[in-house]
């Protein structure tokens, strides 16, 4: 992905964010419409008219995508699940649930709402185009484009990949049939990964056959689904553990400390010897700050000889902090939506543990394995 989403506002208490890939896709869509689609149907339009109508059509398309995502959110609300944020991405919108659905039926209803509303919007827009064909050409062109695009969005969103609704629909159906959340996750993950790789490989074949644009698009979609499925499957993995998993379950209690005056060379040796990316700087049981690989890596080589732990550490106040009872899902979201690699765990203001990103997912897998003696997720989540 290209970076963190940009928050632009909220609707009914739901935060609305735009992923940076959204801007790229808007530019690409606008260019395709202005240079090839609309000129082919309306040869009397000026170049400026094509660009203005294309830009309007692209922006309006993503408004319908937002409606699609809000449909997921409304059904989730009806089932008692909060939706703190919606993110518009290059290929659609994602509604982030505060916690996973409790039953297969809930998951199915929430997942089906998006494609359902897109199908309805597409049908209404096509009807609008049909009855306004003798009116303003620019308006009818936009209606036709939005109608077809929403019908295609309904079909695309129903494909069996994550984070598409089709992946959730498949998971809910498998959950209902097998009566096992974990077995459903195994089935859905296998299909999702196979589908993503199928798009990538198929895109390569299409390029070889001479259809460059279609092939590149298939590869991009496959790559996006492959990357995005990691977060969705990790969320399912956490949800599949019967106990309520919090920061306390996944943190490292026996964290390693160094004193403020420890030479940087010794800091590096300690990190290497203990296979850790973060150390706590403390004096007389008082925590002063943290040293991570990031601080060490970006320190100029000329300064390393004289550097000490205190001179390169980041203060405790600058660290990303979570409470002892923070849910593992919230921890996952922090890691996925920020660039931090470690979290400080506090209990009543006291540092009681650390969570390193590189070990967080291993710990979650371990918890899932210990519950039934098998490590059913390890093969699918990296």
Features:
alpha/beta; CBS-domain; 4-stranded mixed sheet; 13 helices; 11 strands; disordered C terminus
* First-to-last CA distance: 16 Å
Largest sheet: 4 strands, mixed
Proportion of residues in helical segments: 55-70%
Strand order in the largest sheet: 1-2-3-4
Continuous helix count: 13
Q: Classify the beta-strand content into a percent band.
A: 5-15%
Shape: elongated
Count the E strands: 11
Rg computed from alpha carbons, rounded to a whole number of angstroms: 25 Å
Poorly predicted runs? 371-382
Give the topology string: H per helix, E per strand: EEHHEEHHHHHHEHEEHHEEHEEH
Based on helices, strands and strand pairing, what is the structural class? alpha/beta
């Amino acid at each position: 992905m290209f970076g963190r989403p940009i928050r632009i506002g909220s609707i009914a208490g739901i935060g609305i964010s735009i992923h940076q890939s959204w801007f790229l896709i808007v530019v690409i869509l606008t260019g395709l419409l202005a240079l090839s689609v609309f000129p082919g149907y309306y040869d009397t339009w000026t170049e400026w008219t094509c660009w203005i109508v294309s830009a309007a059509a692209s922006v309006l398309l993503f408004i319908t995508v937002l409606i699609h995502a809000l449909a997921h959110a409304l059904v989730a609300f009806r089932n008692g699940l909060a939706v703190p944020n919606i993110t518009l991405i290059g290929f659609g919108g994602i509604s982030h649930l505060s916690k996973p659905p409790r039953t297969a039926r809930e998951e199915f209803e929430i997942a089906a709402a998006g494609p359902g509303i897109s199908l309805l919007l597409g049908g209404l827009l096509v009807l609008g185009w049909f009855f306004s064909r003798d009116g303003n050409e620019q308006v009818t062109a936009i209606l036709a484009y939005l109608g077809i695009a929403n019908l295609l969005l309904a079909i695309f969103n129903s494909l069996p990949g994550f984070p598409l609704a089709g992946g959730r629909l498949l998971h809910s159906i498998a959950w209902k049939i097998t009566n096992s959340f974990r077995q459903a996750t195994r089935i859905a993950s296998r299909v999702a990964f196979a589908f993503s790789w199928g798009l990538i490989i198929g895109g390569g074949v299409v390029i070889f056959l001479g259809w460059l644009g279609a092939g590149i698009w298939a590869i991009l979609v496959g790559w996006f689904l492959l990357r995005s499925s990691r977060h969705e499957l990790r969320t399912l993995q956490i949800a599949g553990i019967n106990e309520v998993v919090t920061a306390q379950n996944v943190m490292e209690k026996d964290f390693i400390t160094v004193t403020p005056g420890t030479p940087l060379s010794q800091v590096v040796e300690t990190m290497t010897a203990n296979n850790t990316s973060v150390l706590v700087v403390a004096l007389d049981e008082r925590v002063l700050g943290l040293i991570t690989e990031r601080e060490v890596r970006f320190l100029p080589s000329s300064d390393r000889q004289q550097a000490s732990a205190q001179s390169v550490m980041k203060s405790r106040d600058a660290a990303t902090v979570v409470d002892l009872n923070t849910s593992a899902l919230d921890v996952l979201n922090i890691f996925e939506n920020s660039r931090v690699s470690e979290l400080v765990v506090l209990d009543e203001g006291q540092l009681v543990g650390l969570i390193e990103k590189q070990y967080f997912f291993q710990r979650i897998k371990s918890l899932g394995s210990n519950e039934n003696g098998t490590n059913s997720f390890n093969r699918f989540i990296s």
